[in-house]
Specification:
Layout: E1 7-11, H1 15-27, E2 31-35, H2 38-47, E3 52-56, H3 64-74, E4 79-84, H4 89-97, E5 102-105, H5 110-136, E6 142-143, E7 146-147, H6 151-164, E8 170-174, H7 180-190, E9 198-202, H8 208-216, E10 217-218, E11 230-231, H9 233-236, E12 241-245, H10 255-264, E13 266-268, E14 275-277, E15 281-286, H11 290-295, H12 301-307, E16 310-314, H13 324-338, E17 345-346, H14 348-356, H15 362-376, E18 381-382, H16 395-399, H17 412-426, H18 431-438, H19 442-451, H20 456-460
Helix pairs in contact: 2-3, 5-6, 6-7, 13-15, 17-18, 18-19
Bound molecules: adenosine-5'-triphosphate (ATP) and magnesium ion (MG).
Magnesium ion binds at residues 180-181, 245.
Amino acid sequence: MDRKEIRILVVDDEPMMADSLKQNLAEDGFTVDTASTGAEAIELFDRGAHQIGICDLQLPDMDGMDVLRHMKDSQPATETIVMTGYGSVARAIEATKAGAFWFLEKPFDYEVLQPLIAKALERRDLMAETETMRRQLSTRTEYFNIIGASKQMQMIYETIESVAKSDANVLIVGESGTGKELIANAIHYNSLRAKKAFIKVNCAALPKELIESELFGHTKGAFTGAHADKDGLIQHAAGGSLLLDEIAEMPVELQPKLLRVLQERSYRKIGSERTYAVDFRLITSTNRPPADAIRDGMLRDDLFYRISTITIHVPPLRERTEDIQLLAEHFFKLYARKYQRPINGISQAAYQRLFAHQWPGNVRELQNVLERAVLLAKTNKIEPVDLPFENGSMPEKSATGGGWDVPANMTLEDIEKLVIEKTLQRTGGNKQAAANLLGIYRPRLYSKIRKYKIDVGSLATT
Ligand SMILES: Nc1ncnc2c1ncn2[C@@H]1O[C@H](COP(=O)(O)OP(=O)(O)OP(=O)(O)O)[C@@H](O)[C@H]1O
Ligand SMILES: [Mg+2]
């Protein structure tokens, strides 16, 4: 699209601000309108929607958020950038939740705005492509090893299809076991980088102190224990893709360093002054809602905006129950074949239980349940008795009402240890699912596992 055809609406009641923005944008070749009140902005916008809206949050006659919502509601393809005068990040995050592409704290230099406009336009194009694709694709029940026919999954396939070939950063958000890694795989293997490396780093699993040197590499003698030069994973991902799993668990001190790599496309090893150019496509994932992670100070907002050019939200299994049957069938066939069991189906009654269950461990839990059921089944069908729960709830949970006698000699710590062990047993050793059930974050579970010296491996098989 020719720049002249790109129309930008600047909404600000400070004439100085609005005029200087208009001048700069016009010099870059865009067509620019300005409005000094919310009412004027809406009127201008309605006359011919602008592709980009840049709006101050505090306007004399109305809240900038309402102008923004109006733009998004009447023209969802419009990308908006919010300016905020009093540096209130909370308000700005609220705006990005309502669909704003970015926010800027005033005052800012035009140089900061320039790349944002380019990014916003890039995203607009990708979205438009997704739309076209949506019309072309028929219903799919499977896509690159991802199973699911629900509307939500269809949308995800379309998004993958349209963004894979670009180098846009993708953030995948979803509860544990929803298939984030499968989606990351589909993106990489559908991209032009498919034949190059796909490096995966789990930020929650690596000890905090190690992440930096693992990612960036180090020179010999950079710190005690650095006996030789070592390339970082960033280097290994060159030409390919890098998946940073559980990005919100990356130490905050390290986040600016990653941000710099993304901005400058170059990095330095620990202990070295030399910069190396790198080229990788970044995919990140998190099972913590990013807004929460930002609020809790775990994820820096500047990094968040950089990594989330495209965000894919993977809904939990309980919100797409129509996929349960398809997935159950798939896993049942897979394990019946694997274990050579003469089972030819899942009974209606067993399906009823599967549909009623809440699936805190999502698809991974369903997979484990089916594996176990295939092994346990005594007839040629999987029956409710082969499932580890009754009437839609886990037996342990429904049993708590019946009372539980605490042995007199147990300390609170003994009890905690026991509960963690039992839960891990129930999830087949899956720590994230256990953390979900226990209502704590995974790092906290890890530290408790260490504290109580729990042998997860042996629990998984009991
Ligand atoms: N839609 C799906 N179709 C088929 N298998 C799936 C699907 N979603 C998840 N799975 C399976 O469930 C398991 C968990 O998936 P995956 O590792 O991608 O989840 P995740 O969201 O990355 O979980 P975590 O947050 O714990 O890392 C894998 O064995 C995967 O193959
Ligand atoms: Mg994962």
